[in-house]
């Protein structure tokens, strides 16, 4: 399918600001040309290593420096992940996304275990996606050889607004990781979060950057911020459903072949709101009672919603063939990746870091 890479920010803003029903109609028309509108993929997001992350993403309860109720746990075993994958499959999931709260992948025993996890879930005939932080090309190649289907690394927001959220790494690292993933011939999953205080221009700029990737990402998750107590964004207002609909619809028109994923924040959405998102081109939800660490609708509720709307869960490998595992190269990466550490100050992040320390002192 031919992709359009020459969108301008003005084009995308004009789409986003169209009268809502006209925007939804246009997006629904594009959706029908490229996807089965009665199919929605059920994906499951599993936190295989939780909390204690050295990064300081302002929205994230897993950052070690904030004080949240997230229970930390080390890397899950192969048995634990196989059990979780099996349960997800029984609930209709065709894709398992494994998330680890790491800054970047290291060539150590944990990574060896992740390779085993990928091999195990691939053998279960599910699409395996991983989100492990920044990754080098060699590491991405190892994951691909193990049978990984997709690698997720979100741009989160526009390059400009990124500096207001995260001081521990730069936007160019995000883009470099996506390039490494692409070179390893993995499919790319990359999207963002709305509701972090960004402007409409930031949202559209992020979609513009994604649309300029060549090829465009196969998968584009759109998350609504879940404001977690203890993080610098705890007081952000919930995202209005109309913003989610606009974002899904605009992403759908700008990247017609991508699967737009209705991701975090569904607990705040009514069924009617979600139905409008499906109409506007959302082709996937994440199921299960947790999305990494934040709440998500109950799986039964989702199955009832599917029945009500006449939706069918998408079969695995409907869009791309199943990766055939190859021998995983043994040698570690000799690359010395130069991930950036900008280190600028974001007052809210600094304040919540101090609060976290104070609270930890009291409880210890
Ligand atoms: S979003 Fe990822 S990288 Fe950022 S703090 Fe959370 S776990 Fe770490």
Number of strands: 12
Mean pLDDT: 92
- The helix-and-strand class reads alpha/beta
Major beta-sheet overview: 10 strands, parallel
CATH architecture: Alpha-Beta Barrel
Total domain modules: 1
CATH topology: TIM Barrel
Rg, please?
Answer: 19 Å
Alpha-carbon distance between the termini? 57 Å
Helix content: 25-40%
What is the class in the CATH system? Alpha Beta
Gross morphology: globular
Bin the strand percentage: 5-15%
User: What's the CATH H-level superfamily name?
Assistant: Aldolase class I
Helical stretch tally: 12
- Report low-confidence residues grouped into runs of 5 or more: none
Secondary-structure element string:
HHEHEHEHEHHEEHEHEHEEEHEH
Named once each, the bound ligands are:
iron/sulfur cluster
């Amino acid at each position: 399918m031919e992709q359009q890479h020459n969108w301008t920010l003005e084009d995308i803003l004009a789409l986003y600001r169209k009268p809502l029903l006209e925007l939804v109609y246009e997006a629904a028309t594009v959706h029908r040309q490229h996807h089965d509108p009665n199919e929605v993929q059920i994906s499951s997001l599993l936190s295989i290593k939780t909390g204690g992350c050295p990064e300081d993403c302002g929205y994230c309860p897993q950052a070690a420096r904030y004080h949240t109720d997230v229970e930390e746990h080390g890397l899950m075993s192969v048995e634990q992940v196989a059990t979780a994958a099996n349960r997800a499959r029984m609930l209709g999931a065709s894709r398992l996304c494994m998330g680890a709260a790491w800054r970047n992948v290291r060539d150590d025993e944990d990574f060896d275990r992740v390779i085993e996890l990928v091999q195990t879930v691939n053998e279960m005939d599910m699409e395996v996606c991983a989100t492990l932080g920044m990754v080098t090309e060699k590491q991405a190649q190892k994951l691909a050889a193990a049978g990984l289907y997709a690698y997720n690394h979100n741009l989160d927001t526009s390059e400009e607004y990124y500096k207001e959220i995260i001081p521990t790494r730069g936007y160019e690292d995000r883009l470099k990781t996506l390039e490494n993933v692409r070179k390893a011939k993995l499919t790319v999953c990359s999207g963002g979060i709305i509701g972090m205080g960004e402007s409409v221009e930031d949202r559209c700029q992020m979609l513009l950057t994604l649309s300029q990737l060549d090829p465009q990402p196969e998968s584009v998750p759109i998350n609504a911020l879940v404001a977690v107590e203890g993080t610098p964004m705890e007081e952000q207002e919930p995202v209005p459903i109309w913003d989610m609909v606009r974002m899904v619809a605009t992403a759908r028109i700008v990247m017609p072949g991508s699967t737009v994923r209705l991701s975090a924040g569904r607990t705040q959405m009514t069924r009617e709101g979600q139905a409008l998102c499906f109409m506007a081109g959302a082709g996937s939800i994440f199921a299960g009672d947790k999305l990494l660490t934040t709440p998500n609708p109950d799986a039964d509720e989702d199955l009832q919603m599917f029945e009500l709307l006449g939706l069918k869960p998408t079969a695995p490998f409907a869009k791309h063939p199943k990766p055939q595992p190859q021998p995983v190269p043994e040698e570690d990466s000799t690359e010395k990746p130069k991930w950036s550490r900008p280190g600028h100050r974001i007052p809210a992040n600094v304040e919540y870091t101090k609060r976290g320390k104070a609270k930890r002192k009291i409880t210890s």
